[in-house]
Write a structure and sequence with these properties.
heterodimer, A: 201 residues, alpha/beta, Aconitase, domain 4, 7-stranded mixed β-sheet, globular, B: 485 residues, Aconitase, domain 3, 5-stranded parallel β-sheet, 16 helices, disordered N terminus
Chain lengths: 201, 485
């Protein structure tokens, strides 16, 4: 489905904690069943309110990696936040922690949500904001290694199941459907244990 | 030795190790251990609604897939629908009507166990309807494409919200892949004071522990203050587990839970009720069960709480002053507070009581149930909404509205100058045209005070229904306690 082996690109610093998915993809863009077209929703309120918003300026207008504060993507489960990032060209978000639903949604769409220690993220944010060593970051998922703008190499860890799914571009639904018989057998046995679950009311 | 699903605390063929509520329910739902550390978990209930449902139906149609267990799916509409009481569908936006039509079409092609359409008296907010109908039950796994699905953990269900890709996975396989989260217990002892509610309790937890304390954990709320809450209060508490960072919040089922569920339309009946009850009674955490993390709070010192910023953790007792960001030691918190105070148009050091408001919203999956409306109506009494304030009451479901009307609460609200509206998510998520204007200030009983959440430029203060009602009457942020003595 979606695969991610590695990516190098311009990284934009967004040194804010608790950036929520309402900010990433405001509701007024989301009343549609179309997955396409979400790129224009990305941080729309902040871009409109602030002409100096980081993604409106060079070199970050071309950014494909976002570096942000803790608890990035908290709040609503709206997967449109990830679709908006992906359509705007983002392949990875680096932060000390993520809203869990957003983090899961990232992996389902081949966007790498990469958790690094708070201090490391602060260092990267500082370097990017000051333009020290340029604005490029390189991420190698096969080697579990990220190279900062100054070339310093930082190892990272990603959940093994998610790492494999990203590297292989696995379609999880197809994989689970191969266990159709196992699921049906579970339901058959469970119906004996907990009949009220299956025959409600 | 074959290891069963409950080996987390040791093998099952010796004396079973003490387990938590969460562990017991999780273990009962493991279909397979997947390579890489995830479990394949059976989903007992899938709740669908128009906003994420239309996308899911479109996704499966494009791939020629179909629902695995339609009888375990329940559907309603809540997010994009108008809350006008007449001609609701016509009053819904064109984009919203298109979603409604697409969702209905999907429901027609793949009929679920039940569908509460706009003309159905049972229609309402997903997390209000599922407990009310007995669709959510203790010990069930329940998933929905909405982050506040954790709400129904208040009944002792194992419930969490998912994005569109996982909605499709659940729809097509009736399962979810997930690594077992760690466990956390939040113990709240002590007796809540008068005019202080579950909403105040959870806002106090957010102020104390922040929005990341629950990340990676399934949270169980315990302690005497939690036990003393009615089911609706427990639903309010668990509703905002996601604001604490936890996808899952639970309260162990007890006699309060069973009394609430008995006789609900989709709850088991007769001998099946007895059988289910016997099962449910074994679910609460064992006395010796250990949690990966524990925190606690004393409820007896709490009064009404309100948020002052743009994150739900930026909350405080209502009788305090707007904090001064410069006094905050942590640079990240200081920066966030500065940005928040600026956005909210507040002056550090000013009392938050007395700040003028434009809008009051009483509703949402947090606080739109009968007890919420009763608390608000008790504050309102014979008083009037202050001139210039737009005040809305949006009941969580058609049945909540009906019960409230039978008790005359709609009359109390209408006489005071509140709008009495039809059920839906309304101004909490601002997807249906119910919005707070740019630069306007609202006291809202919902769950998120994010920038722009209630409309671009909207300023949101989260509070209990009683505080919201008192503020509507005062025309400014107000403490409800003086009106209740």
């Amino acid at each position: 489905m979606f695969s991610f082996r590695g990516h190098a690109g311009i990284a934009a610093p967004l040194p804010l904690a608790n950036v929520d998915t309402d900010a990433i993809a405001p509701m007024r863009f989301l009343i549609t069943s179309e997955r396409k077209g979400m790129g224009r929703a990305l941080f729309a309120n902040w871009r409109e309110e602030d002409p100096d918003f980081v993604l409106s300026k060079a070199p970050w207008r071309e950014a494909t990696i976002l570096v942000a504060g803790a608890n990035f993507g908290c709040g609503s489960s709206r997967e449109m936040a990830v679709w908006a990032l992906a359509e705007a060209g983002f392949r990875a978000v680096v932060a000390p922690s993520f809203g869990e639903i957003f983090e899961t949604n990232c992996f389902k769409n081949g966007v790498l949500a990469l958790m690094l220690p708070e201090g490391t993220v602060q260092t990267l944010l500082g370097q990017l904001a000051r333009g020290e060593g340029g604005s490029r970051i390189e991420i190698d998922l096969e080697a579990n290694m990220i190279a900062g703008p100054d070339g310093s190499r930082i190892p990272f860890a990603v959940d093994p199941a998610r790492r494999e799914a990203l590297l292989e571009g696995l379609d999880e639904i197809e994989q689970t459907l191969r266990r159709r018989a196992e699921i049906a057998a579970f339901q058959l046995a469970d119906r004996q244990r907990r009949p009220w679950v299956y025959d409600a009311g | 030795m074959k290891s069963g699903p409950s080996t987390r605390n040791g093998p099952t063929d010796v004396t079973p190790a003490p387990r938590t509520l969460f562990d017991k329910i999780w273990d009962q739902h493991v279909i397979a251990r997947l390579p890489g550390g995830e479990d394949l978990i059976h989903v007992d209930r899938h709740i669908m609604f128009e906003l994420t449902g239309a996308i899911a139906f479109r996704d499966i149609a494009a791939k020629g897939r179909k629902p695995f267990s339609p009888d375990l799916i329940y559907s309603t509409m809540d997010h994009v629908i108008s809350t006008e009481r007449r001609d609701r569908e016509a009053a819904t936006s064109e984009a919203g009507r298109k979603m409604i039509a697409e969702f209905r079409d999907g429901v027609r092609r793949h009929p679920p166990r039940a569908f509460f359409d706009l003309d159905d008296p049972r229609q309402g907010i997903v997390h209000v309807v599922s407990p009310e109908q007995g669709i959510a039950l203790p010990g069930l796994t329940l998933l929905c494409g909405d982050s506040h699905t954790c709400t129904v953990g208040g009944l002792g269900a194992l419930a969490w919200g998912v994005g569109s890709s996982e909605v499709e996975h659940v729809l097509v396989t009736q399962t979810i892949r997930r690594k077992k989260p760690k466990t956390m217990r939040i113990t709240v002892d002590g007796k809540l004071r008068p005019v202080t509610y579950a909403k105040d309790l959870v806002l106090a937890l957010l102020a104390r522990f922040g929005t990341s304390v629950g990340t990676g954990y399934a949270v169980e709320f315990a302690g005497s203050a939690v036990r003393a809450l009615g089911v609706e209060g427990r639903l309010t508490l668990c509703n905002m587990a996601i604001e604490l960072g936890a996808r899952i919040g639970q309260v162990a089922p007890d006699e309060t839970t069973y009394a609430y569920l008995h006789g609900r339309p989709f709850a088991p009946k007769g001998p099946m009720w007895e059988r289910a009850l016997a099962h449910w009674r074994k679910l609460p955490s064992d006395a010796e069960a250990s949690f990966d993390h524990e925190v606690s709070l004393d409820a007896s010192t709490l009064g009404p709480q309100i948020t002052w910023g743009t994150s739900p953790e930026q909350a405080m007792p209502i009788d305090r002053l707007v904090p001064d960001p410069n006094s905050m030691a942590d640079p990240v918190r200081r920066e966030a507070a500065m940005k928040a105070v600026r956005y909210m148009g507040l002056a550090p050091g000013e009392p938050i009581i007395g700040v003028p408001i434009d809008v009051v919203f009483i509703g949402s999956c947090t606080n739109s149930r009968l007890s919420d409306l009763e608390a608000a109506a008790a504050v309102v009494g014979n008083r009037k909404v202050a001139p210039g304030v737009r005040a809305l009451v949006v009941p969580g479901s058609g049945l909540v509205a009906k019960s409230a009307e039978e008790k005359g609460l709609d009359g109390v609200f209408r006489a005071a100058g509140f709008e009495w509206r039809a059920p839906g998510c309304s101004m909490c998520v601002a997807a249906n045209g119910d919005q707070v204007g740019s630069g306007q200030r609202a006291v809202s009983t919902s769950n998120r005070n994010f920038e722009g959440r209630q409309g671009p430029g909207a300023r949101t203060h989260l509070a209990s229904p009683a505080t919201a009602a008192a503020s509507a009457i005062a025309g400014c942020i107000a403490d409800p306690r003086p009106l209740m003595t």
